[in-house]
Design goal:
By secondary structure, the protein is of the alpha/beta class. The chain has a single domain, classed as UDP-N-acetylmuramoyl-L-alanine:D-glutamate ligase, CATH 3.40.1190. The protein is built from seven helices and six strands. A six-stranded mixed sheet has the order 1-2-3-4-5-6, sandwiched between helices. Helix 2 packs across helix 3, helix 4 runs antiparallel to helix 5 and helix 5 packs across helix 6. It is globular, with a radius of gyration of 16 Å.
Amino acid sequence: TKQNDYICSTGQKKTEAKNGGFDLMVELGRLMKKTSLLLGVDPKTGNFEFYKGVDVITPNHHEAGAYCHMEIKDEQGIVVAGRMMLDQLACGSVLITRGKDGMTLFEKDGKITHIPTVARKVFDVTGAGDTVISTLCLGLASGLDITSSAVLANFAAGIVVGEVGTSAVRADQLKDAISKNHGFHTKIKRIWGAFGS
């Protein structure tokens, strides 16, 4: 298992852009290219110029729509936005989170994967974005491919939105959710160690 492969970064607020936020992200990206480290970002609206060339970015559909100057109303809109972001930001991949409609993953080779939600109930979406980027990066750092890592992140997000307030996903919760999906369970077993078991 590889370790420390990904740095997870949340975008600075707009006011911080005037205080070196852009320069920081440019320098961080430059340093990453000199190493085997990869860079993942959960963006903030208005700061997308910071994120050109990152390995993976995880906007929600509102953030993706704001970047593309469009209102995303359906799957066609998601596809247009995802392809535009992938091209203009020159990212390795784009994972757009879509609330009750799950997630859509865009890869550089043109592959698009729609991942349906597994959430049985939604009480609070607070912290869901942080959960997605951190779990996605955990999967990648553990040797999973980007699609499997996105599916793993989808499971984790489904757990978090079922809780009230900001919450952390426990290892046993994630394992239980995955175990109910037998096809994915076999593939994912190798990351159990990443959860301390």
